[in-house]
Amino acid sequence: MADDKKQNQNQKKINIELTEDMAQGTYSNLAIINHSVSEFVVDFVNIMPGTPKSKVKSRIILTPQHAKRLAKALADNVKRFENAHGVIKDYEKQPVPLNFGPTGQA
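== Transcriptional accessory protein ==
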């Protein structure tokens, strides 16, 4: 009986691989979120001052159910972070314009 219980616990574990390249991560200071009836699309961008053009660094596509789970998980983690380290200041900045950066002169 103990073997059956141990076997069931082992079957519930998920083996997730994290490659060295992926472990480095990608910095993003802007997330653009769009959705349709069947999916949420989150584009992560790194915008640098003075740079006329920025590229999407990563795109994540989620089902609505997974998007809701992600939102709950983020909210829970922010709450735990603030309990441990204090309130995260929210600097309400103006939205970044699509033509961010210097404009060309003719």
